[in-house]
Amino acid sequence: MSMDAPSGQKRWARDYVFDILSQLGIHRIFGVPGTNEIPIIDGTSYPENRVEYIECLHENIAIGAAMGSARMTGKPGVLVVHVTPGIAHSIGNLFNAWRSQAPLVILCCQQQNELVTQEPLLASNLVDLARQYTKWAHEVRTEQEFPMVLQRAFKEAMAPPNGPVFVAIPWEFTMRRIGDDDRIKGVTQISPHFTADRQAIEQAAKLLREAKNPIIVAGDAAGYAQAWPELQQMAELLGAPVLQQTFSSLANFPNNDYHWQGELPGSQSGVQQVFKDHDVAFLCGFSNQAQITVYKYSDGPLIPPHVTQVYLSNNTWDIGKNYYGEAALFGDLKATLPLINQLIGNQPSPAAAARNQKLKEFAAKRAADWEVYLREATHQNEIWAVVIADALRKEIAERKLEKQFVYVHEAVSDPAPFQYLLPFTDQAAAPISYYCVGGGSLGWSMPATLGIKLEQDGCQSIDTRFVVAATGDGSSLFYPQTWWTAQHRKLGVLYIITNNHEYHTLQMGLTQVESMYGEAEGYEWTAKTQDPEYLRIHRPKPDFVTLAKSFGGMEGEIVRHPEDVRAAVRRGIDHVLSGQAYVLDMHTVGLDQPTPDLQASNARYEKQPPLDCFHFRPETGLLSNGPGQPGNVPVIF
């Protein structure tokens, strides 16, 4: 596309933004309109800019949608927010973007430069608000530096490791006339494909090759680098189980590989149990390393001291962040892993082959256990998540949507069935086929669907024909106004509400805190009740189908029994493939039943087979988050 302005068309400083978007092939700006932003938004009205403005009804929706867009394209998501409340409303998903290394450029239109010191309406120190969760935060100081700042912002968002960048702009600067030839020459793009130091590679390969019982942890950098094949080769050479970091942002290892063991547990004792019998841990792109809720130094470190730690990451901050690394490799995963594998050797050792055989046997037993669990779930009075995941799996297979689906996960009480049953495989998907965030600030899933669905082609050779989000009822109520934008833009997305009428993970959090501190000297704290009203979402219970209909007539249905799930999922997919959003309110606790006690609520989790079949088997002990708490119930605050 030519960047030359049509004859006679004026150019303003805001057009520097569109110069960059044109060069990078970015075609959307997300936001909530405000007066200060109108000069930038107005630029989307010119067809020659080939940029559309995606209007959202809350800034945290806008930033969540921009994150979804960035995940699909691999390019920065761009949004415009409105002064202090705009960036303040965005903080939840800005935090998620920071912890998930999502490339974003956030433009915030500050009040008039000559007025800011007098503290006018909505003005504040915007940079201080955003700085903690950005790679770089800056307020433009003069009109002349605007092009330089924009070039640096986009360069930094894309430089490894990716991340959000914030730029505050006094709004009158955007309206300053510029000459026809005043343009940004380009955006510096730093190649991410650099290898680690050769000596460090040799050291890492030696430690891994000589390990008696190695383990691999695949962090988000592995998914972003599309490093599945290289990690699979290493797992085979070492005979090592592979776990993903807790609250992985992507599918960092394919779930059809028998080395796959799901995510690390969410408790101190659970993480310790994973590592305790290993002598060497390869921590590959492992960013969010302490995704637990309660920690006591007296109970020991998460990774026991006897474990030799080998790190590889494209982010120095994540290398040896919490513990000493015997080998520390700074490099791109996709470029460096083959060099390590080459030095480990072309054939697994006899010990590695024996470990691989055990892993195959454990994986076969896990599959059989999950079949039993699924059959039991189909005979319950309410809907267990495994029934929903199974219905999605079957519909994806029947419709041949394997390379055409993205699953967005915020059913935080029920991750395992979706992570295990959906086809996140090396033949059928890509790391970005799974969308979550590393931050855990609720309200990421429904906004992300907007940006994901708007981008038809994913950067990892998938497309977004079928986008489905599974979201807990509590999380769904953060930003239901997302559905207005979905209807406004005619985005066919399937929204599944896993509705238990409570904040179940917080119920578990309460139990965990009491188990850790209820008898601890100096604390001895217990809650007034184990079934607090403030953790319930009832009296009245929200009607999600009616709520969705109010945002532009979105269709949906309530599903109460497991035998009805498959047909409802089929109807939902029929709707979304024809371009109509649809909501399924899945009752994981019956509406007409008395609210069950916590023990009854946990029955489905206690019976659920662990994904980590290598470390948590009957003979080794079942995973637990603490006294009376099954480990298959994640806990987040």
Features:
disordered N terminus; 23 helices; Benzoylformate decarboxylase; TPP_enzyme_TPP-bd; 6-stranded parallel β-sheet; globular; DHS-like_NAD/FAD-binding_dom; alpha/beta; 637 residues; THDP-binding; thiamine pyrophosphate
List the helices and strands and how they pair.
Layout: E1 11-12, H1 15-24, E2 28-31, H2 38-42, E3 52-55, H3 59-73, E4 77-82, H4 83-89, H5 91-100, E5 104-110, H6 126-131, E6 136-139, H7 146-158, E7 164-170, E8 177-178, H8 198-209, E9 214-218, H9 220-224, H10 228-238, E10 242-244, E11 260-263, H11 268-275, E12 280-284, E13 308-313, E14 327-330, H12 333-344, H13 350-377, H14 385-398, E15 405-410, H15 415-421, E16 434-435, H16 445-454, E17 466-472, H17 473-476, H18 482-488, E18 493-499, H19 504-517, H20 544-550, E19 555-559, H21 565-577, E20 582-587, H22 598-601, H23 603-607, E21 624-626, E22 629-630
Parallel strand pairs: 2-3, 2-4, 4-5, 5-7, 6-7, 9-10, 9-12, 10-11, 12-13, 13-14, 15-16, 15-17, 17-18, 18-20, 19-20
Antiparallel strand pairs: 1-8, 21-22
Helix pairs in contact: 3-5, 3-16, 8-12, 10-12, 14-15, 14-21
Protein name: Benzoylformate decarboxylase
InterPro entries: DHS-like_NAD/FAD-binding_dom, THDP-binding, Thiamin_PyroP_enz_cen_dom, Thiamin_PyroP_enz_TPP-bd_dom, TPP_enz, TPP_enzyme_TPP-bd
Organism: Chromobacterium sphagni
Describe this structure in words.
This protein has 637 residues and is of the alpha/beta class. A 6-stranded parallel beta sheet has the order 3-2-4-5-7-6, with helices on both faces. The chain has a 6-stranded parallel beta sheet with strand order 11-10-9-12-13-14. The protein has a 6-stranded parallel beta sheet with strand order 16-15-17-18-20-19, sandwiched between helices. Strand 21 (624-626) and strand 22 form a beta hairpin. Helix 3 (59-73) packs across helix 16, helix 8 (198-209) packs across helix 12 (333-344) and helix 14 packs parallel to helix 15 (415-421). The longest helix is centred in the middle third of the chain and has 28 residues, at 350-377.
